[in-house]
Amino acid sequence: MVVLTALQVEYEAMRRHMTDVREVPLPQGTLLDLGRIPGLNWSVALAETGPTNTRAALVAQHAIEQVDPDAVFFVGVAGGLKEDVRPGDVVVASKVYGHHGGRESADGFAARPEAWQPTHAMDQLVRSARRNTPWAFLPSGTTPAPLPRVHFEPIASGDVLLAARDSETFRRIKRHYNDAVAVDMESFGVTRAAGMNPALRALCVRGISDNADPDKSAYDAAGSQETAARHAAAFALRLLRDLRPAARPAPKPAPAPSVIVVSGPEPPPDPVEWKGRPVVTVGAQEYLLHDGPDDLLHETEDHDVVRRQAVARVVSGSGTGTHVWLRQVERIRPSHGPGGSDPLAALEREARLCRRLGGPDVVQLARGGTTATLALAWPGGTNPAGPAETLHAMLPDPPAALDPMRLWTLVKGLAAVAEALERLSATGHAHRALRPTAIVLHRPRAALRDLGLAAVPPRPGENPGPFQAPEQRYGSGARPGPATDVYQLGALLHRALTGRAATPDPPPHRGPDFVPDGLVHVVAAALRGDPRARPRMRTLRLALRAAARELASVPPSPR
After folding, report:
1. Are 97 and 177 within 8 A, CB to CB?
2. pLDDT tens, residue by residue, 85-118
3. pLDDT of 332-349, one tens digit each?
4. Backbone dihedral angles phi then psi of residue 550, each to the nearest 5 degrees
């Protein structure tokens, strides 16, 4: 995504949150800082535009054309126009007015309003973030008392710096744009540039540094701009935490040979994509890749490495004819990870843990040069018709009507998964990445495709998405662990029972008459926001087994 700021103080407030930063010049001369926000699944391109709407629009358009972002945020400071909007508060623009548009005649000034509004999805993102821990990203030691307020209201934007309330500009804004609560000099330009790209999501996040009056200089001298910029940056990151990447059509693969080698003593000079490449060779093994939903054929760049994963069939080597879960980590630049950690070694640690637990079975572990590969046996992997399906097939979107047989299959399968997670917990580890595609249906049981994040230490923001537990979110004071797995199993069951994503501390959802009361109550308990209040995995497993027995006695639905 692209984050734009107008002033150096705004730029510095965002830049402090970024790591692995490198400066990249655009063809037009604009300099971008490319980096990441720890714990967030986003790459960020940060730029300083300078003041005025015209400059902001030009730089925004350059950045959008070159980066092709999923979203653009304009983050910085503004002057307040209303008495209840105080310095230190944050205003997210529900509208942006260009307040200079109009016609001047002998009869006076006649406004010709132009306005930009965010999409409904972005509107809901803002409203949710300001209700739920809005200040999770404030730097330690900078949280004021009382906490700043977040306003989702219109702002006015023009090319005049407003520093007097008895001016004609102020009176014009009050007369023609009287619902605006703040004023700046750049938001209209940024949103005009973003609006030229209909699919591009955009927001303006403005910290209030003054009251747009003669006291502005005094506020600035007292550090109000630094405070306002810090608050705007913190809330922008809070929005980014919940923003999901937009779905994009898959690019057409470039012509390539049907067999590629991606590990060995000499790694290739550039990362080799798996999508569109039917066969991957790792040492003496050859794997035929399968396409699949969600993350079953997936590739992503994560800091210094590229991560690839896919369901595959062994076409040559040990286990020919069986299916595996194939994952690979390739280092693409020198590591700057915390403590010099080795991201490739995580696959080796997971393989040792799999052997210790007696599954999933390790088919191949290979490390050569800058690449490590782990192949785990896919449950039910000998089926010649193809790999066994995942829980994703039982949780369609839009949701299907619930019936006793489908619920019995799901509950019985997840009871087996809970048993595997109990064994994992006994080793001092937790999966922490449960989702529908992480569970393979080997009927009448189910099994884990891998050990998730068990081989890596917890980090803020891990496992983003609808099955993320509260303690995994950035800003949570709790540490993810076995209780995280309980929450995620509860979230899967809640999705099956209601057709909706789970939120912490929901009321029990009764559902159809055949749904056992014990299942309803244990799911609600598993989704408690406080990890300490959730049942243990053994309690959840026993409740699932009891529910499966009860569901088995329900007469089949008439056809």
Report:
1. yes
2. 999 999 999 999 987 766 776 777 777 778 999 9
3. 876 554 444 677 899 999
4. -65, -40
Q: Which two tokens stand for residue 53?
A: 């709407």
203 by Cβ neighbours in 10 Å (0-12 / 13-18 / 19+) ranks as buried
Let me know: does 98 contact 114? Beta carbons within 8 Å.
yes
The closest alpha carbon to 91, from 253, 263, 223, 207, belongs to 207
CB atoms under 10 Å from CB of 246, counted, come to 12
How far is 541 from 158, CA to CA, in rounded Å? Answer: 61
Instruction: Provide the residue type at 414 as one letter.
Output: L
Please tell me whether residue 289 adopts helix, strand or coil conformation.
strand
- Is pTM, for the whole model, over 0.70? no
Which residue blocks in 222-344 are alpha helix, DSSP H? 224-242
Q: Which amino acid is at 189?
A: G
Q: Please report, for residues 136, 276, 330, the alpha-carbon distance to residue 371 in angstroms, rounded to integers and kept in the order given.
A: 36, 20, 4
For 153-171, the pLDDT digits (tens) are 999 998 777 766 777 778 8
Transcribe 227-250 into DSSP letters. HHHHHHHHHHHHHHHHPPPPP-PP
Strand 201-210 relative to strand 90-98, pairing: antiparallel
Q: State the Cα–Cα distance between residues 551 and 445, nearest whole angstrom.
A: 15
What distances in angstroms separate CA 481 from CA 253, 306, 358, 419, 478, one per listed residue?
Answer: 39, 26, 21, 16, 9
What are the residue ranges of helices labelled H in 132-279? 168-176, 187-195, 216-221, 224-242
User: 3-state DSSP call for residue 206?
Assistant: strand
Nearest to 240 by CA among 34, 99, 75, 98: 75
Cβ contact 509:496 at 8 Å: no
